[in-house]
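Record type: ASSEMBLY
Status: queued
Input:
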Amino acid sequence: MKWGAEVLLAVVLALPCFAHAEPVADADARKLLSRFDAEPTVNEVQQAALSYAQMHPELFESLRSRSRWSAALPEMRLRVTKDQANEGRDVRLFDENAQPVPRFVNQSATETDDDALELQGEVKWKLGDLVFNARETAVVRENRLVARERQRILQTVTQTYFERRRAQVDLLLAPPTDAAARTVAELKIAELTAELDGVTGGAFSSMVRER
Amino acid sequence: MFAPLALVVTLAAPVSDSGLWMSTAGRAGERALNALGAGGDGALYATGGGAVYRLEPGAEWRRIGRTAPRLRWDANGEVDARGTFPQALLAGVEADATAVLDFATGEDGEVRVAPERIAEALRDHVEQESADVDSPFGVAAVVSAGAGAWLATGGGLYFADRSGVTGPVPEISGPVRAVLPQGDVAWVGTSRGIYRAQSGGQTTLLRQGNVTGLAQGDGFVALVFDGKLLVGSSVETASPMPGPKGDPLRVAGDAGALYLSTRLAVHRRSAGQWRLCAGLTGEAKRLVPTEGNLIAVTEDAVWLFTDECQRVVRVGPPWPGGFEFTDVVSVGGMTWAASNEGAFLLGPMDADTSLAVQMEGYERAVRAIPPVDRLVVRAIAAHELDANSRDFGFRPLLRNVLPDLTGHVHSLWARRERADFMTGLKTIDLVNPRFDWQVWFSWSVALDRVSVMAAAERDAALEAMRTEESIVLPGTEGEFDPTAEGAELVDVDAANMVLDDDDATLMVLDGEAAADVEDRIAEDISRERRATIVERRKLVAQVQRLYQQRQNLLYRLWVLRSKDLQQRVSLMLSVAETEERLRAMTGGAFRVASQTVNASSANKESMQ
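Status: finished
Output:
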């Protein structure tokens, strides 16, 4: 096979006949969109939103197994009892007239002081909890709810991000001629920026400023 | 020929757009390629992902060998690099890939993610490495030589011909950036210096430095050496030459001219003068001279310079989206391009061919993502609605038959002092402390609770049937079709009132508040199952709807090509948004082999 520069030249010269085979709109559209390359990507905004909401999936990954393994630690009870008692006993005899019988006065008189300290300890493992912990159902539910909430955040961020981008593109491609319409268009972008800041704790604007 | 002081002419040639790229048949037709070149045997050679492909005239692309090992991942979480390569290269590739897959295994070494995610990560890794000329997967150039072609790779110098691929040449170390054959000698530019390789096998390191470009023309040789342009009558005598403004990146030469690319422009030097050929939209990845003409490649276009750069034709990608050119070659009067979507041939355009190319692009874009059923499975897992995340099996039942294990320790210290006033005696009793201990197992199996657990299974099944009926809006009959016109999902909580999530969560978390924990467990399990079924159906409908929406948008973008800029940008943004929503919904499983729409790099990163 021989290098055929003359044939290549022929092809190249013929090409302008089919000018704009790739629609110029594509190149222009990409060029237009590349104006926003300095802004944070939607993934970065999503991550910022998840961080702000503390809803990264990895935070919840081990919750279920940890809840089960928590049963490996026993339930422990300690009891300390201090007992102090003082008891005096005086035995007397009385006759039928309820008069003390003199010879039996002070028949018996004792006093007892008790002082005791009791220690009790108990550890209890619920072996059944190692197999299935009652908290697992709560963890599973919590994981589901968190996953649902995470999705809500991601979908909101994505929708708002692209809505804002469309508003920016509209302002560039079809800028309103009168001041009022322009102000409304700019306010729309500001509103969407604020929404993104709201879900990211201000990180969106910070990222825009940093670039 | 080259005056020491160059006169730079800054008047650039006007650029016109044109061209139609047609796909090619065979293995390299749709695979990501990073280099392409003509061999001395009249065949074309292409490389991508470590594989080498060859195309003979009139035939299809076929794979003939590899310049980088295959990667396999085994069940122990180890990456295995295979192939007939030096041990150091295999070990390096394995180490890099293992580091990339760190996310897949926990600290205990247990694999935490699905095998298909590992495969995706490995594919991504190879793809990224292929774009790096310092990596064994990266190929800087395919250069015609003898009966085949030299392959300048990050892992060394290889040679490909009809019989396959051999290499790397052992005497040459460091990533190879450029090769310049001159008769029996091949000059090899690497990151460590320039080597002189004799056909007899002798290889010597001539100059130390970082060589990124080598070219020759009539009576001159040019190098990009340590970031400077060197020109001379031979490689040994080349000395620095002032060039146009900007750092020299690529160099090319032909009979009468020297071409040099800087970051955003291509310059031509002849008769002692530099002339700006054209400003480019990006960095030129390749400069390919072809008898008085030049072809430059940027990510988004191939630029054909003719008439000594007086005329420039820009040929964009065959279809919109994440198409990226990587290399180009002109041979036999035909121009071929390598890209991240395969090898393409440039030809004149007609309306029918153009439509066929658009349809092919659309079909590829549709094929580039996983089928909807796989996306649904991944979305269910991402939402913690899959069986692995929610199935308790027989564990709740087993919990009731396992005993409690109790250990008890007791100790008493006591003193009793008793005084008898009658006898005057005083007695003191002392109980000295001593630890007594007991250990016991206790079973308390409430058979009624076991039956409650079993009943929960049955209740869940019955409730599921009721639930499925209840999510169809009044007025819709028969099988629930979430994609049907008018079908709408009712809010789960409001429709069934089975999800009193917050209350239930608190109830169980505050386990003490539950009158009977065991009964509560049975109730919770049953309730969770009902909720799972409802949410799964809702999720499936959402994924299907977004998937269908993406196909429709792609069709409008690819095939029904509007020329209106605002409409086109809006469509691109809609595609990007739909893909992003699908990606978020499937926990990152929705990935396009090549980014469908390069809308502000929306999909560049993957979310873990």
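Annotation: The longest helix of chain B spans residues 517-558.
Annotation: Chain B has eleven helices and 35 strands.
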